[in-house]
Write a structure and sequence with these properties.
- With 66 residues, the protein is mainly beta.
- Helices cover 0% and strands 55% of the residues.
- The chain has one domain.
- It has no helices and 7 strands.
- The chain is globular.
């Protein structure tokens, strides 16, 4: 999970390789978007460096500009 403090959103990587954008409040999490980011399973945490989001698994890595 990656917290985007400026927007109050979270980015979560699922085991199946999807990226999920969530917004939370005290009662619930609201899914705001989901994409298939990797073609295979991942257990790695996403990271952000210089406005770019990186995720990877054992076979591939992807980068998204935020």
């Amino acid at each position: 999970m990656l917290l985007l403090s400026r927007t109050g959103q979270m980015i979560v990587t699922t085991e199946a390789g999807q990226l999920v954008l969530l917004r939370g409040n005290v009662n619930q999490l609201e899914e705001q978007g989901r994409i298939d980011a990797l073609s295979d399973n991942t257990w790695n945490h996403p990271i952000v460096v210089d406005g770019r989001l990186f995720i990877r698994n054992g076979c591939e890595a992807v980068c998204y500009e935020l």
